[in-house]
Amino acid sequence: MRKIYVIFSLFVAVSLFTSCLDKSSNNSDVVKLVTAEEMQSILELEDVQLVDVRTPKEYDEIHIANAQNIDFKSPTFDADISKLDKKKPVILYCKSGGRSAKCAKKMEEAGFEKIYDLNGGISKWKHSDKLTFKVQS
User: Fold this and answer.
1) Alpha-carbon dihedral 54, 56, 60, 65, rounded to 10 degrees
2) Quick one: which of 88, 96, 48, 41 has its CA closest to 72?
């Protein structure tokens, strides 16, 4: 009887563990988190749309060179992203990764085919020599 209890307990534990893994992992083939190094390579090798989803004030203070600003919190956000090419890869970034992750999800739902999200946002990489920034003087 004890063996049956142990086997049943192991089965339940493995089932719970694998079901939790499925919910927490990103199974999307469309959205990929990237480092600054990967982002720089993508910018050099692919024709991409680079989008800063922070507020215009944040964008004006510092942004990655050649990025366009589409404020995630703007009431016109959905209309603004609809102007982007859904077939062309998009790289998103924000301050720390929260807004860009939400934006990536919205864009995936809207039918964008390839989305890259800068892991950790601009805060993590602003002192990196891997990306070129425009800073307000």
Assistant:
1) 60
2) 96
Full-model pTM: 0.75
Q: What is the pLDDT of residues 42-88, one digit of tens each?
A: 989 989 999 999 999 999 999 988 999 999 999 999 999 999 999 99
Q: Give the span between the Cα atoms of 78 and 85, in whole angstroms.
A: 13
Q: For the chain, what are the domain ranges?
A: 27-135
- Concatenated DSSP letters for 3-44? HHHHHHHHHHHHHHHHHHHHHHS---SSEEEE-HHHHHHHHH
Q: Does domain 27-135 have CATH number 3.40.250.10?
A: yes
- Reported as a single tens digit per residue, the pLDDT across 2-30 is 666 556 555 555 554 443 333 334 557 89
